[in-house]
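User: what does the whole thing look like in 3D?
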Amino acid sequence: MNRAEFERVYAQYGGLVLRRAKAIMRDEAVAKDVMQDVFVRVLRAEAAFSKVASPMAWLAQATTHECLNRLRNSQRREQLHEAQGDGEEASRAAAPDERIDVARVLEHVGPELQAIAIAHYVDGLTHEEISEQLQVSRRTIGNRLDAFRRVARELEVHQ
Amino acid sequence: MSRGPHCPPSLTLEQLAAGEAIAAEVRAHVEGCAECGRQLAELKQVVAAFPQAHFVAALVRETQRRAAPSRRRWVGAAVAALAAALVVVVAWPSADDFRSKGSSAFGVFVRTPDGVVRRLVPGTVVHPGDAVRFELAPARASYVVVLGADAAGRITRYEPASGPAKKYPGGRVSLVDGSVELDGTLGGEKVIALFCPEPPVLEALERAAAESLRRAENDPHAMAGLSMACDERSMFLEKQLR
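Assistant: Here's the predicted 3D structure for the full assembly of 401 residues, as structure tokens:
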């Protein structure tokens, strides 16, 4: 991938990657760091990247992965806590009665639940679509999201 | 607003906004659905507004205007190795993004030997002999330290070059005095800007960076945060062979 090609990819997808990172991380500066790391990945995987059917799907997955890596770093927890207040984007895909502080709750659940919650709350996938994507039963998806909401409520109580 | 029963997921709308092909029946739905249309228009706006090159140009002009006599420092390895190296830098898209509300930030400019100054943007290629200069935007008045952690396992202190950490004013953009020439060490380099509320112990920050790099097995991309009482921002330089 030469410079012109990379710039084209960056211009075409950079805003969408940044938007997705902001929806999960809820911190502008951290989201920019995530975006930067994602495009470093593009540079590193240029041969594979140029062959993918959907660059957007590749970038979305890389962005989610990078965000989850950062969320696992417990040092971010306090900053996320402070960053609350304008979290509409993180909950965009959820129904209006599910105004959950997704970014904060992600800090307190395991990797499997994180993946399901991001698929639902950030990617806007239905239980059925998540079930197909993760090869897990719909019932399990429903149970996991119930568990996610319980954690959210507990965090709200202890806030 | 939640999805209707026939509405595609967000990713599909993002694919559409980016100009990718999607199934004809899904496209037909989006074209006829007010909510999908609204979300698609919003996503297209995100794509269209990124990046905004005129802000980059304005920053470059400001840098040239304020440029002070350069403080040149050579970092690391043999000059001969530089001829084979280039650096690809992934940086921020625009100047308005540079100052994010409530957060500290930093940026990087490069000056070529023929005097051209430009802000580093994704894909920028710099050659041996180019000078790099840092720009800082503390959210509040802070003592700033800039460190580099490279794939050779080295920690380099870029700011302060000597003496204790300097205090930078909050809420405005400042240029670090002088410039730095990168060496030819290939691989990644993580440049870390630390915005500290109190005068930091420089050796402690350097030790923390060295320990983080060691734990990451000298892979700057795998480094964890330094866990110091400072606001931390980072940027990666990727050095590649031609």
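In plain terms: The first helix of chain B runs from residue 10 to 17. Confidence is low (pLDDT under 50) at residues 52-101 of chain B.
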